[in-house]
């Protein structure tokens, strides 16, 4: 492994880009800008040639496992195949090279697409009002909790607490805190279900929101979902659904139908947006009618073409018969609607980010929904659940699965016995799997299961791959503990010293 | 249904292994009463070919900067993106991987993020960068939250009106329920006056947020503003334009404690506003309050240098409601793009890019003012964008004239600044040619003598 | 100069190590009298940004099949290319590597080529495929050369007039100095008549070259023609349309000894005619006369299965003037594309694609004939393209009308077949929608009552 | 290394593509096509899912070395960096999705580009007439020899032989044979230069063409170039320049000026077209005025817009003032010229392929020439020669370079002494270099140097890379011969059995 950084490759005088000569009359920058604001020299970035940059990054890329190269059963992350057609669509100049402040009439194709995404997400969630703005699932949580806060302020109720099961993603309590709520933890059972006694004990009139992940993070559909939601509603609270696990229930069950008032989607999980090594994502949220006015603005609206007052004023010739050509040379829209950004939402919580949304992610989600359709989306969930259950049925024979014999899209096995009997931890298994050519499952989450190993195969893997993974995992559990403690053995590096990294931090190149 | 993964035979074998007779049986844990019981009401599935044709038709309805000429700015810019950036970011191993939890099979991502952090540190002149946030606005809001956390009981936040209005709105949303007092210092002359700022400061002020160059493109007297803030014991959160740093002083050099920016200019397409790249850097003393992922260097068990996610005790998956933020990912792919972009430009490329923006925007502003129809709204010097006042007060007509000519002319400011309803914010990047600029002047100033075709021809000759 | 690799300091160090004082000195072996002594008379260098803008402007001058509607065929087709094909072919490791001389670091290319050969063998029904040639025409010429080599003293080559005219021209060029007699069998009814072929055959005939479906889109009685050729002791070289094999018998199944085709349809963009993919396959007995690269399976020194270039003694780098051909590369990148394309389609996808071509082309032909202005030039059944006669004898006007409407209408045949000067060759791929076809009919048949806009609207509605 | 083939991954019923329903009235294929022509079933292609196909090929790619990942000093192949800007340009829909039979007026941008390429190549070669048609260098050779044959036929001279130096590429004699000539080999000296005695002895009136590679394949500029050319011309013959090594002399010396009558270019070498794992390339040829009429047709011609007779007839409104808009929505051409395909060349040898040319390769070459300009192209050659000489200066100390201390773009070292003294062959060195992370140089070509190792670094490598390579090569020459015989040790496979491959051929999957 070549550990040279870009900075190590730098040599004074090297260039990879050549900018054109200035073709307008130019003056010295010092004449145009105040001396106090000017730097003596530009920042000390590395100086490189194009071939160096290309080779550096192409080789760097090869040190990553990825969905396109390996099975990646990282529980809770839904590492499904990213269809290449979606990437092509998102790269079209008319999708990629458009500015967020373009006049509406010059961006009707995009607005129409975004309007449809709002509609589709509402249909899938069973929650009629949608805002696409949030930049990630966690920001969707925050936005929704701010919606709840505004709602309660509006109806003059003071509620300060948010209920969160202990097996929820850490983002749930963190978002609650950011939104100004106190987070109250609810216990869960071995099965992953909410401990109803604890829940009822903690539910009071100060509870603003119950945040619930359903199916939950051990891959179980909350058995008391209806009871939980009814109890919260009865006390005047709201139910928030963490949509991270929507991949299990598309077209099967809708949060709006099982009691949620709000939810976010993770389009980069459920609708196949690539994870990009950590991002970007998006976090659109859907809410009930009564919460709709509080959503972040703008949202996309639609009205009949004839109602386009603006164009009546300024456009010389609004075409008759539906279908005005707004972009020179482009065919007419043809369906008689005009799409616009609706800023006129006085109760809105405001913005959680600049510009419209993570549009590029939403374009991919749109493509995914359009190429699957209602049957295809349901089939996605069916196959995701089939794959997870099949893998569970193979794994449970050598690694116990406390939640039982059934799961939705993922399951959580435990290496607790292996740990106590042979000293082999979940981490050891995870690391050793890398040697066998598999990305590791999620380990040590949720904390409610000891030595947990959380496996989410997704629907885009074949039975052959699942079989190979189960066999590898089994083989690993049988291997010499010493071998496992030192694993992985075939990767460029092995077991980095994380303690040293945090104690004596080196967070940038200092050459 | 465009994909078939498991074949019908596979399905049967798998169901048998599980011990159920149908896929439906697997869903038994979903109570019947909570099932949808009907197909989703969505359009039927398309194949890839139909999708392609459909998306092509939608895309045609969007005037795009590859064929139109874009003078829009306000935080998203039509800067040039070298092809290498796309090549790197479209490597499967980068874009189909996830957060590097398993460092052994993620050194590619981890090293790239470490390089990104190093680039940002050098760019900003500050000590520490995280591995990125969502966008400029949320980075600004996180900067404010950091300041509040660092400020103990200080509960006042002062914003310059020259800070991007959507950043100000985002900050307001983030702090809405946190008992924070938000104060905005006006900028009647296009810049933040030190006296006004000092007036807004008190010993309850956690931070001041200023933008350099500001939303109007004007260059602020940032050093003086920072000094005033520090004198009041407040931290300085600086929003900056990364391209401007080819010429301007770095935030760390003029006194910023936290610097944030929208990193879209660094190699990411405008894509109608997102996803983008939130850059945030801070001084050493604030590092443990930093939100988001941070990559650190360490050694592996054999002593090899390597990279890992570090300082994770700040984060929500460990600290839950006590975390510095709820952010649990980064914008890795765009941080990668920014790293590649900066590597390709180098110091000289960044400087030349900045200078082209400066010269060309100045040229356009002067040409417009010569016409008599327009005047600069503010006297302050500007970098790559500027506010122009239409003496005929018809910004809507100007925008429409631009569209008709295939030009995206400028951003009308009335939406955010009612007093600037007769103004446009116009940005000129290094991509704009003199011919394009001259043509814009012609379009905006009006062209009564019908010489348009000549200029159009001139533009076309420019293709040789 | 857009790139600087060695810095000025590097240069000095390197010159010193070499022992010269300047780069000029390194060129001393070029006699002064043979030096150019002036700069090349070429336009000055552009940077990447300018290049992008320049190429975009040139590209705008080309009506392209992504926005226009393409009914052109004649050997190059607007078939759909799944995005995965581009993703695979744009992997650096594929497109920036070269001929796999070092098998140890080229198993990716070698295995892909082995898979390509396997695909072609299954596609053609023949025994052996090489790893590709330049294009369909040169593959046809190489097939003729193979036949001549195999035929000993046989020096006559019989071509069907239904073979692509440019393939016939290429064959003529290749054999121009080899003392070969070329005979063309006419196709007055659009197909090769067995009786005409038999008349053209003699015992000096090395091979017969026929195309199925032929250049006019007509389906030949290929089995009968092959039988006639074999009866005369000649080999059969078949040119075929790979997409047609979703429905039609494979060349190996109807008697071809050598099968060649243009592989562009299998996942390669039309790119104004090249580079393309020459497919060639043959029966086992001809393998040692095969031109070009062939990949074979073997084992390495540890017994691992692997792939290598093989049968290299046929090739020019070893046999020089005794080689089977001068071809010393293949079209690896497009062979890879074809492999990915066929892997994505599978047998059912190929069949469905073929069927869509068949149905849609038939529908267009019928709609055109209904109008009264057009008639089919030939009675023979056709697959995806057909020849239509304009009773008003104005193919040029038709093409122009098409362009005006954004349609690439058809290929006028007068250039190659004077007797068909009033005819167009029209191809309909799976990409063409009914709305597009109906609109073409309207454009070609004429639209006196001004209902165009209605149809245009209908087309647009189709985007929902 | 996973050696599964696509066919091994296949399962009946899997699909990766979904085609639309037929939207026109459909009939059974058996009704529309004769039964005798119809297959019973489609070909037995493998049945796969998209994720399988993607993962298969992405992982397969990782088994290749390439320019983007490794230094690739493969002599005679000019493995230079392929600028990514060129790929982007060639992928524009207006460049990629255009049909070869489009009407000229709908493809003026492409025709203009191709016309310019003709002009640039003529300027670079010093040979005024250009045909872009040939699909590869070898086909360019063939086309040029056919031009020569036609020329001699036309002037009624019977010449049957072609002279080829023994260190020429094998394509030279092979092309001569294909063009109907007898190939006569001329000896070369240790320096790589043509043996003048042998040359003069073999030059007679039957010689149609001298094919010469200059700089030659050992990287030496032929010292007697002028004498050779003059002698051939004196006997009425023609000189053909194998342009494979043009990377050494761009803007420095022009074949037309040093005596060549014909030459081909390898745009995929000299002008940075990617090599694609073996292709595609292109083989444009340039010739003297007198040979121009024989070039393959069509070539691109240019005439003033006003002379466009066709458009005068059919186009409703030819715009005045130069610059008719031919493509709807596009800006006008603006320079007053009309580009066309010139088929009217009665003496042409005809076609050597279908359609116009390897246009996609030529688009990249155009981009390369435009982004370099006259100074940049010369600098390419200067830096290529500098890099080669620098590497030679380092290598010669441990591996003799028979040609001497100077070279042009490449040099040929010999491992003959190493072989005789320690049993280490050129092949051993090549294989062992792979372990050190370098692609091997070309070995055993040219045959005129024993145990030859032909190194061409190209201009796109840095001094650091050259130093690292020289050090690795030196280290390898010092290593244990046993280690070298078994090398490489770190690659997925090592030393395939080529003899077995050729004896017992397995040329396709037979599952």
From TrEMBL, chains B, C:
One Gene Ontology MF term: glycine dehydrogenase (decarboxylating) activity
Record bears the keyword Chloroplast: no
Keywords, comma-separated and alphabetical: Oxidoreductase
UniProt superkingdom: Bacteria
InterPro entries: GcvPA, GDC-P_N, GDC_P, PyrdxlP-dep_Trfase, PyrdxlP-dep_Trfase_major, PyrdxlP-dep_Trfase_small
GO biological process assignments: glycine decarboxylation via glycine cleavage system; nucleoside metabolic process
Gene3D superfamilies, alphabetized: Aspartate Aminotransferase, domain 1, Type I PLP-dependent aspartate aminotransferase-like (Major domain)
Glycine cleavage system P-protein N-terminal domain residues: 7-444
Reaction it catalyzes: N(6)-[(R)-lipoyl]-L-lysyl-[glycine-cleavage complex H protein] + glycine + H(+) = N(6)-[(R)-S(8)-aminomethyldihydrolipoyl]-L-lysyl-[glycine-cleavage complex H protein] + CO2
EC number: 1.4.4.2
EC class name: oxidoreductase
UniProt function note: The glycine cleavage system catalyzes the degradation of glycine. The P protein binds the alpha-amino group of glycine through its pyridoxal phosphate cofactor; CO(2) is released and the remaining methylamine moiety is then transferred to the lipoamide cofactor of the H protein.
Subunit structure comment from the entry: The glycine cleavage system is composed of four proteins: P, T, L and H. In this organism, the P 'protein' is a heterodimer of two subunits.
Family note: Belongs to the GcvP family. N-terminal subunit subfamily.
UniProt protein name: Probable glycine dehydrogenase (decarboxylating) subunit 1
Organism: Pseudobythopirellula maris
Taxonomic lineage of the native organism: Bacteria, Pseudomonadati, Planctomycetota, Planctomycetia, Pirellulales
């Amino acid at each position: 492994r070549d550990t040279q950084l870009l900075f190590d490759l730098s040599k004074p005088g090297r260039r990879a880009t050549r900018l054109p000569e200035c073709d307008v009359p130019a003056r010295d920058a010092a004449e145009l800008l105040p001396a106090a604001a000017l730097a003596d020299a530009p920042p000390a970035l590395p100086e490189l040639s194009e071939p160096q940059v290309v080779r550096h990054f192409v080789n760097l890329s090869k040190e990553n496992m990825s969905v396109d190269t390996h099975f990646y059963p990282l529980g809770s992350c839904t590492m499904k195949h990213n269809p290449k057609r979606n990437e092509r669509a998102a790269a079209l100049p008319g999708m990629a090279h458009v500015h967020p402040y373009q006049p509406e009439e010059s961006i009707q194709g995009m607005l129409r697409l975004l309007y449809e995404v709002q509609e589709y997400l509402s249909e899938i969630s069973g929650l009629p009002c949608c805002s696409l703005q949030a930049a990630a699932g966690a920001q969707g949580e925050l936005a929704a909790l701010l919606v709840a806060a505004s709602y309660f302020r509006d109806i003059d109720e003071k509620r300060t607490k948010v209920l969160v099961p202990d097996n929820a993603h850490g983002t749930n309590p963190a978002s609650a805190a950011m939104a100004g709520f106190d987070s109250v933890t609810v216990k869960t059972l071995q099965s992953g279900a909410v401990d109803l006694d604890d829940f009822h004990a903690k539910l009071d009139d100060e509870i603003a929101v119950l945040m619930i992940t359903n199916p939950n993070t051990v891959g179980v559909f909350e058995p008391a979902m209806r009871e939980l939601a009814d109890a919260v509603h009865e006390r005047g609270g709201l139910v928030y659904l963490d949509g991270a696990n929507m991949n299990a229930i598309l077209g099967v069950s809708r949060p709006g139908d099982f009691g949620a008032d709000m939810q976010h989607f993770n389009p980069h999980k459920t609708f196949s947006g690539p994870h990009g090594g950590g991002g970007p994502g998006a976090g659109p949220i859907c809410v009930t009618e009564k919460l709709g006015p509080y959503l972040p603005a703008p949202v996309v609206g639609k009205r009949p073409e004839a109602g386009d007052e603006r164009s009546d004023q300024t456009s010389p010739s609004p075409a008759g018969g539906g279908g005005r050509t707004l972009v020179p040379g482009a065919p007419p829209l043809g369906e008689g609607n005009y799409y616009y950004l609706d800023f006129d939402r006085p109760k809105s919580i405001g913005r959680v980010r600049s510009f419209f949304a993570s549009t590029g992610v939403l374009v991919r989600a749109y493509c995914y929904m359009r190429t699957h359709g209602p049957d295809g989306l349901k089939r996605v969930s069916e196959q995701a659940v089939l794959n997870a259950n099949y893998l569970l049925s193979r794994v449970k024979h050598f690694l116990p699965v406390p939640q039982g014999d059934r799961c939705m899209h993922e399951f959580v096995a435990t290496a607790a016995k292996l740990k106590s009997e042979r000293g082999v931890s979940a981490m050891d298994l995870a690391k050793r799997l890398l040697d066998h050519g598999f990305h590791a499952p999620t380990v040590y989450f949720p904390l409610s299961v000891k030595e947990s190993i959380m496996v989410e195969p997704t629907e885009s893997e074949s039975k052959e791959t699942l079989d190979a993974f189960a066999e590898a995992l089994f083989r690993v559990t049988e291997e010499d503990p010493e071998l496992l403690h030192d694993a992985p053995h075939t990767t460029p590096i092995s077991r980095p010293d994380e303690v040293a990294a945090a104690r004596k931090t080196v967070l940038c190149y200092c050459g | 249904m465009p994909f078939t993964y498991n074949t019908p035979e596979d399905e049967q074998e798998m169901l048998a292994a599980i011990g159920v007779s149908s896929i439906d049986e697997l869903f038994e844990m979903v109570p019947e009463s909570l099932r949808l019981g009907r197909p989703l009401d969505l359009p039927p599935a398309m194949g890839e070919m139909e999708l392609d044709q459909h998306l092509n038709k939608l895309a045609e309805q969007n005037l795009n900067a590859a064929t139109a000429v874009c003078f829009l700015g306000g935080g998203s810019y039509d800067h040039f993106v070298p092809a290498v950036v796309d090549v790197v970011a479209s490597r499967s191993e980068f874009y189909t991987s996830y957060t590097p939890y398993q460092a052994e099979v993620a050194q590619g991502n981890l090293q790239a993020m470490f390089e990104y952090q190093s680039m940002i540190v050098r760019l900003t002149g500050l000590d520490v960068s995280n591995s990125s946030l969502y966008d400029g606005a949320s980075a600004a809001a996180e900067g404010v939250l950091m300041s509040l956390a660092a400020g103990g009981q200080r509960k006042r936040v002062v914003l310059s009106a020259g800070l991007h209005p959507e950043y100000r709105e985002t900050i307001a949303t983030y702090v809405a329920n946190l008992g924070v007092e938000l104060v905005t210092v006006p900028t009647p002359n296009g810049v933040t006056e030190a006296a006004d700022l000092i007036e807004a400061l008190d010993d309850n002020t956690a931070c001041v947020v200023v933008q350099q160059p500001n939303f109007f493109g004007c260059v602020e007297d940032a050093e003086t503003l920072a000094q005033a803030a520090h004198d009041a014991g407040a931290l300085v959160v600086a929003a900056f334009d990364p391209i401007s740093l080819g010429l301007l002083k770095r935030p760390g050099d003029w006194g910023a404690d936290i610097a944030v920016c929208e990193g879209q200019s660094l190699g990411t397409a405008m894509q109608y506003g997102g996803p983008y790249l939130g850059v945030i850097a801070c001084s050493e003393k604030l590092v443990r309050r930093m939100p988001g992922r941070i990559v650190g260097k360490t050694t592996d068990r054999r002593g090899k240098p390597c990279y890992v996610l570090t300082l994770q005790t700040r984060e929500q998956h460990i600290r839950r409601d006590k975390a510095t933020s709820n952010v649990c990912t980064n914008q890795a792919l765009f941080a990668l793009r920014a790293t590649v972009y900066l590597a390709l430009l180098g110091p000289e490329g960044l400087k030349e890019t900045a200078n082209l923006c400066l010269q060309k925007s100045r040229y356009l502003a002067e040409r417009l003012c010569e016409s008599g129809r327009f005047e600069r709204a503010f006297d302050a010097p500007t970098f790559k964008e500027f506010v122009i006042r239409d003496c005929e007060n018809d910004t809507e007509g100007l925008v429409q004239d631009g569209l008709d000519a295939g030009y995206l002319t400028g951003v009308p400011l009335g939406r955010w600044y009612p007093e600037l309803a007769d103004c446009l914010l116009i940005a000129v990047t290094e991509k704009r040619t003199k011919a394009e600029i001259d043509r814009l002047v012609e379009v905006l100033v009006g062209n009564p003598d019908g010489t348009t075709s000549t200029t159009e021809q001139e533009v076309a000759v420019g293709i040789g």
